[in-house]
Design brief:
Length: 334
Amino acid sequence: MIEELEKLCASAQSEIAAAADAQALDGVRIRFFSRNGELTKLAERLKDVPPAEKPVAGKKLNETKGILSRLFDEKQSELEVAKQNSSVDFSLPGRPLTTGRLHPITQTVRLMTDIFRRMGFSLAEGPNIETEWNNFDALNTPADHPARNEKDTFYIATPPHPTEGRHLLRTQTSPVQIRVMKTQKPPVRIICPGRCFRRDEIDATHGTSFHQVEGLVVGEDVTLADLKGTLEFCFRELLGQGTQVRFRPHFFPFTEPSFEVDFKLTGAARGKEWLEIAGCGMVDPRVFEAVGYDAEKFTGYAFGMGIERIAMILHGVNDLRLFEQNDVRFLSQF
């Protein structure tokens, strides 16, 4: 029986090596490993081997099964790899790997953050869900102000805060200023970029979700001249050194005096119209009182502007909705 096992092992090895495809290899499996295969028939004859020779024959049978099973599996893997490679045309050029990039809004936020960091501003952030007190009351916004109406603000149907009123999606990043002043004594010099939410009609220049960057400076002897110098430097760094900036008197509940800021770009390529770009003013003393600052000792200024509007100006985009549609053809330009 030992000789028969050796002959069978040699024959099976030869046929496994010669199998050119999966069909031929399956034929080898049927011949040697199936229920009626030659290896199975030899195993059945083990009971007829004399008792003295049975241990040696049994060991040889197991060794033969192990060798042939390993060779069969290796050949099967080899044929599968060959089949996969045969379906690949290695003469074709490689496919380039596309890399991601920052969204134009994120690029604009980082550009503005870099400008203000160079002027000594720190970055401050806060939650998107705010309380009425942080979003309105602490900012000297009266109870009958239109912005507090449910037609203009997204209120959240949760139990109100015991002392700070209902919860809402912040309408501006100004609550970050309040949070900082509640925990930090002057001097304060921060910018607060982030997402805001308002119930506006969606069109080319408005959306229910948008981004702002606001700034706050508080200290002793902070003046309107400091505010003007800061914003003029910012817009000239953003839009070019030839940018003209003007301040128009306006009203905001949390600043007094208050101004809207317009800019004009020189050169025919960019036009000569004055365009509104920001709001600003000296912090109202009532805001300082709300956060526990000494309004007699400290003064400060605040400003805010829309990130999408600045991105539209920088890149010549005429529809704000393009930034939210995730069209790769649009976004890949930036």
